[in-house]
Design a protein that fits this description.
Elements: E1 7-13, H1 20-26, E2 38-43, E3 50-55, H2 57-67, E4 69-73, E5 89-93, H3 114-123, E6 128-136, H4 141-154, E7 169-176, H5 180-194, E8 202-205, H6 210-224, H7 226-233, H8 237-261, H9 269-285, H10 292-310, H11 314-318, E9 331-333, E10 351-353, E11 362-364, H12 366-373, E12 398-403, E13 408-411, E14 420-423, H13 430-443, E15 457-463, H14 468-479, E16 486-490, E17 498-499, H15 510-524, H16 532-554, H17 556-559, H18 562-574, H19 592-599, H20 606-623, H21 628-641, H22 650-670, E18 682-684, H23 686-690, E19 694-699, E20 703-704, E21 710-711, H24 717-736, H25 740-743, E22 746-751, H26 763-771, E23 777-783, H27 791-798, E24 802-805, H28 811-821, H29 832-836, E25 842-846, E26 857-860
Length: 869
């Protein structure tokens, strides 16, 4: 394996949030994993603050497991995006006269440490950033100076201060925002928040890459002035010595001035070495002449460092590490308080130790380190416990993801029969998890016991929202061939084969088919829309429509095709114009639904055309007395229009129109998607789908055909057609799948939005759970709108053997979901707030094993569609 390299990681909130006591326990273990790390907080506009960490991924992940955050590498290894106008850079520095405030012992502190991070974020204006470059405190000179400084400040032993902890870190803070005053203010506020023990913090404008440029300028100027100095002092040795001393003093003063404007120069070892070399060179110049090339070297270096300085970037400042202080230890003037010890001893000191390290380097205690790297956000309102997967859920089955301890977590295969319910808002990952379950089902046919899944199995997937799920599954199957046929039925595409909604091709009388179709329509529409007389009229109309369609199709061989046969039939209707006013406007229909609409007076010619159609049916039944379908249709015509020999009057037409109006309005809704009922498209029945191991995706969503044309069902029809399909599917299951579970035959039903298939009485979806086991039925349903489900259905879904939820924004539903997850009235951490603030792509999973219901656990769902999009 290659050597690990540092990179930027996006920090995300997890549920491993600690209370204050737990915070103190883990603080000393976090800093060692952050040595050399850079914390970057970015606020773009009014968006929430985004947090990034730079370092070795393994070390950052280890720190995250301890502190309660997650790390995600940025795509393509790119850098975080900084606000464009955040070029006014400042950093906090410690004043020379700064002193330590009152001591704070960790075991005595009862602070809300997260408040520190919140205060930093609250101070950040729009389009700003705060970076904190961390390193562990040095164990030699730096550690000794910190101890001496703390002991001097407190006038007693230093051991009670956390500043002397081995895991205290040094930090260089950099901030950027507009305008300049805001930058200085933000730097000062951030410094005070991070180093609350210091009495004062100042802000300084940052100048990346300026230090070496200034040193090279000073060195070049010093060497260039050598001849003037030599002439002035006449090259005498004693004068050269005096000149060297004065030059050294001047160089020291110049460096101090530069250090005042650029505090980080104090830790710049190359700059210090260059300065001392210049002093020695000046002293030697009194005795020996200096060649011109010695002048050229610093001059060239000055030009290069000048160009480098002029091309500085914000990242130069962010990546500048906290400097070390190698010079003589600082002191400051003692005050009265410095000479009074805690024990009442009076001392007589004029100077005491000053700040122990570089003025631009802050000392951060371990608790503060953990507080600033732990992200805030919507997850900080309530505390959540760790919820690792129960041991029985780690042995294998249907992979859900990885729990907080890094173990793969599964749904036991034996629990499939009890159903899988998935809740979560849009974009949370419900569809991806559904795809993972279907992928397992495809691959596990040859490896699982027929009692739970096995070879004689099929998948029926209803795609209600978009076609992407079906396309992704087909792409997955292309890479993982299973040997089982798979189909995608695009209901909105007129050229795509689909399920026979009317059962038209069943070898049953049209009267039975019409009654079934009417029941399906009743189920598909809102409760009470089709009742009593309306249902009876619909049955008569559908009986007429399917009987006429069957008659027309029998004539196709003689008349040269379906269209010609339909036109010939319409022509015979038009011939009845003299008896039935409007019949001359009759047009050929393409589907049983079209002929049914004509039978209810919905086409041109209205009731006149409808009664002429009835007359034609009566005539055909006489011409073909052995055709039972035409006899059923004739009886329906008499029920709708009366006997054909009756008198045709305006009053009778009005009476018929009033009788069929409500039913006609229902049929009219289907005429904008009449192609769904085209008999040439109805190449499959639910019986044929269930008859063999196979995978089916029924797409009721908008689609594109092979030519790129967009197709969609009319508004409101997605739900209606979906419910119609559901009705016929479940009744087919009940009539053909008795005892399938015992025979080792199973059907997995998947729906990406079950609320679109639910009706007011929700009998079918509830029956799937209550009665489905004996039929080998395995429901896998997902919804982002559980609050829209009827109470009975919602109770049924909550009763599935496996319950999975992503974050749920609705407060009342989050409360009910939490009650479903908790085993201890919320004391185990499963509260409504926890459900509302689940991290992205994380789920709360509660399921059973063969023995009992297992405690809920937190699982991160992998991207089962990775590489397929």
């Amino acid at each position: 394996m290659g050597r690990e390299t540092p990179q930027w990681m996006h920090i995300i909130r997890t549920l491993a949030q600690h209370n204050d006591d737990e915070h103190r326990v883990i603080t000393d273990n976090v800093p060692p994993n952050l040595d050399g790390a850079i914390l970057l907080l970015v606020k773009s506009g009014d968006d929430p603050v985004h947090e990034y960490l730079y370092g070795l991924p393994s070390e950052l992940e280890a720190a995250g497991k301890l502190a309660g955050f997650g790390c995600e590498p940025l795509p393509g290894g790119r850098d975080p995006e900084l606000p464009e106008d955040a070029r006014n850079i400042s950093h906090p520095i410690i004043p020379s006269n700064a002193k330590l405030n009152a001591r704070s012992i960790m075991k005595d502190m009862r602070s809300d440490w997260s408040g520190m991070r919140k205060s930093i974020e609250a101070n950040m204006p729009p389009n700003s950033y705060v970076s904190i470059h961390l390193r562990l405190k040095g164990k030699t000179v730096e550690d000794d100076r910190v101890r001496d400084w703390v002991a001097s400040e407190y006038a007693t032993t230093e051991n009670d201060s956390e500043l002397v902890s081995s895991n205290t870190m040094c930090a260089r803070v950099s901030v950027g925002c507009m305008p300049k005053d805001n930058s200085a203010r933000l730097a000062q506020q951030t410094g005070k928040a991070l180093f609350p023990l210091i009495s004062a913090v100042e802000a300084h404008r940052s100048r990346p890459r300026f230090a070496m440029f200034a040193v090279m300028l000073a060195l070049t100027a010093a060497i260039t002035l050598h001849p003037v100095a030599c002439l002035a002092w006449d090259l005498w040795a004693w004068k050269a010595t005096v000149g060297g001393a004065l030059a050294s003093l001047a160089g020291w003063v110049v460096l101090m001035v530069i250090n005042h404007f650029t505090p980080k120069l104090s830790l710049n070892v190359p700059a210090m070495a260059a300065c001392l070399s210049a002093m020695a060179l000046w002293w030697a110049s009194g005795i020996w002449d200096i060649p011109m090339w010695i002048v050229a070297v610093p001059a060239c270096a000055g030009v290069m460092t000048g160009v480098r300085w002029m091309r500085w970037d914000v990242w130069d400042d962010i990546f500048t590490p906290p400097h070390r202080y190698w010079w003589v230890k600082r002191t400051r003037t003692a005050e009265d308080s410095d000479n009074s010890t805690k024990l009442g001893v009076e001392r007589d000191q004029t100077r005491v130790d000053g700040y122990c390290t570089a003025r631009s380097t802050l000392l951060l205690t371990p608790p503060i380190i953990v507080a600033i790297i732990t992200p805030t956000g919507q997850g900080e309102a309530k505390r959540q416990e760790l919820h690792p997967a129960p041991e029985p859920l780690t042995h294998g089955g249907i992979l859900v993801g990885v729990d907080q301890s890094g173990r793969d977590t599964y749904i036991p295969v034996s629990q499939l029969f009890g159903g899988i319910a998935i809740f979560g808002e849009a974009g949370s990952g419900k569809s991806v998890l559904s795809h993972g379950i279907m992928q397992w089902a495809d691959m596990a046919r040859d490896t699982t016991d027929a009692k739970a899944w096995g070879k004689d199995t099929r998948i029926i997937d209803f795609e209600m929202k978009d076609i992407h799920g079906a396309d992704l599954m087909q792409a997955w199957r292309a890479h993982h061939p299973t040997g089982v046929e798979s189909h995608v039925m695009r209901m909105a595409d007129p050229a795509c084969p689909c399920i026979d909604l009317l059962g038209y091709h069943d070898a049953r009388p049209v009267r039975e088919l019409a009654a079934d179709a009417t029941a399906a329509m009743q189920f598909s529409f809102e409760d009470g829309d089709i009742r009593g007389a309306s249902a009876e009229v619909l049955t008569h109309a559908l009986t007429i429509g399917m009987a006429v369609q069957r008659h027309v199709e029998r004539q196709t061989g003689q008349l040269g095709g379906l269209r010609a046969a339909a036109e010939a039939f319409a022509s015979r209707i038009r011939e009845l114009e003299q008896r039935y006013n409007g019949a001359g406007k009759a047009r050929a229909q393409r589907t049983p639904m079209g002929w049914s609409y004509m039978a209810l007076g919905g086409t041109e010619g209205a009731i006149g055309t409808a009664r002429a159609l009835g007359q034609m049916v009566f005539t055909l039944s006489k011409e073909q007395p052995d055709d039972s379908d035409l006899r059923d249709a004739q009886a329906s015509c008499e029920q709708l229009y009366g006997h054909p020999d009756g008198k045709v009057t305006d009053a009778s037409n009005t009476r018929i129109d009033t009788k069929v109006m409500a039913s006609r309005n229902k049929i009219m809704k289907f005429m904008n998607c009449e192609h769904v009922f085209r008999t040439s498209r109805a190449v499959e029945t639910w019986e044929s789908v269930l008859a063999r191991p196979s995978d089916w995706h029924i797409a009721l969503c908008p689609v594109h055909d092979a030519q790129g044309r967009a197709w969609s069902l009319p508004d409101g029809m997605t739900d209606i057609i979906g419910k119609w399909l559901m009705y016929r599917l479940w009744h087919t299951v009940m009539s053909t799948c008795q005892g399938w579970q015992a025979l080792g035959k199973h059907t997995m039903f998947v729906c990406d939005e079950v609320s679109m298939l639910a009706t007011a009485d929700d009998t079918i979806l509830s029956a799937m759970k209550d009665q489905g086991r004996s039929f080998g039925w395995i429901p896998v349903v997902a919804t982002q709108y559980p609050e829209q489900l009827a109470p009975r259905l919602l109770t049924s879904v909550f009763g599935y053997s496996t319950f999975i939820t992503f974050n749920t924004p609705d407060a009342s539903m989050a409360e009910r979901t939490a009650a479903q997850l908790t085993s201890d009235m919320g004391e185990d951490g499963w509260t409504a707030s926890a459900v509302q603030t689940l991290p992205r792509f994380h789920v709360a999973l509660r399921t059973r094993d063969d023995v009992q219901l297992q405690p809920a656990c937190l699982v991160k769902v992998p991207d089962f569609d990775e590489g397929l999009r």
